[in-house]
Amino acid sequence: MRLHEYQAKRVFAKAGIPTPAAELARTVDEAVAAADDIGYPVAIKAQVHVGGRGKAGGIKLVDNAEEAREAADEILGMDLKGYHVDKVLVEEAVDFANELYVGVTMDRGVGRPVAMVSTRGGVNIEEVAEEDPDAIAREHVDPAFGMHDFQARKVVYDAGIRREVASDVASILTTLYDLWEERDGSDIEINPLMVTEDDEVIAADAVFNIDGDALFRQSDLAEMEDEAAEDELEAKANDYGFDYVRLDGNVGIIGNGAGLVMTTLDLVDHYGGSPANFLDVGGGAKADRISNALDMVFSDENVDAVVFNIFGGITRGDEVATGINSALEQFDEIPKPVIVRLAGTKAEEGMEILNTDLVQVEGTLEDAVQAAVAAAEEVQA
Ligand code: GDP
Ligand code: MN
Question: Ligand 1 mean position to 192 CA, how many Å?
């Protein structure tokens, strides 16, 4: 589960990390009132679960009420990398001298949490991580002991943080580690951690992802989830009880069983396509679940073609086929091409039942995936 920036900042501020004065707004009028309240200049920032909002036009710095109105009007309602923006954070703009990066995540290769610090924070940290990994200092932490003060000081020193701000940065890093551990974090980061001319250190952005399986013991964070699940498709998947992950491609994928769906994702990629989602309808998928699954992929604007990959075990091929037919019969026109591969229990019966006016049936998974990738490409062409 991913917190919004404004939610993460509240958690950080409560733990003693300096954050800019800010107010959340859902309408243009609210945004302007908040900006007037805070005093100009302010930053107006889209609250959606994607990184790189700055580069995508989701963050604007404004100097007066007129500009604030214009920026809020532009950002509210905008589509940011497939996410609808329905709230903005209006925040005191920080006049910074430089931008740092600090974060904690799990290093799965080493099997320990790792604290990271860099003087090259800002919007390009991903490129830095790839092109110049040495520019990010790292320190692994033994979770049995937590992060020692000397470790925080060491990683800050290794990163080349100026002496004047080193102890503030080290203390923020320690706070991040403690939050990560106490609140069952998976990733926590501040990028940028801004340093002003007066050597004040302030969190200008905040990322805090929580292990979804730990929410039962993080009830206050779990409450934020409802507020955070503003992505319609993810909310829908919750309602339907599907395991669903939205991705950024255009080939919709439906399968039964996590491994099968993963395989389909890999194959789509292998044949030059790009998956739009992970959607596991689970075992014993009955007709209504199939029709809910189709509703999910059809309502995703990014999807250009759909591939079904069903392996019949408990799930019977004839039942799935009936489900697909009845779901598609509701449409005057099928919104996107659907390609089906059935195997296993009652697969042959299923393939007989499938209405080929509505779907394309393929005998092998490879053929089905290739057909879906081709169909999606055709839509794009
Ligand atoms: P992200 O692009 O989604 O990671 O959003 P960030 O909150 O990290 O903002 C991206 C960039 O916008 C930052 O690296 C800054 O350069 C700029 N920015 C964000 N907030 C402020 C601010 O308060 N003052 C100034 N001057 N720049 C800001
Ligand atoms: Mn950022």
Answer: 7
